[in-house]
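Render this sequence as a predicted structure.
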Amino acid sequence: MAAEGGLLGAGIGAGIVVLGAGLGIGLLAFAAANATARQPEAAADIRATVNLPLFLLEGVAIIALVVCILAVVL
């Protein structure tokens, strides 16, 4: 019974991670598109500014998914 609870917890955790990362990336892309629409001449600067938070969001999501997978395996 405890093994199924661990699998369920890891699955729920992975789902929350994916939802959170997707929401964060979506909001970031929305803000970047909105800023680019307001100032098209600053598109290169906006794109460069968006890259770091985007990579950090992806990295956190991947690390959290690895932790959920390790919780199932170990």
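Summary. The chain has a mean pLDDT of 90. The longest helix spans residues 2-38.
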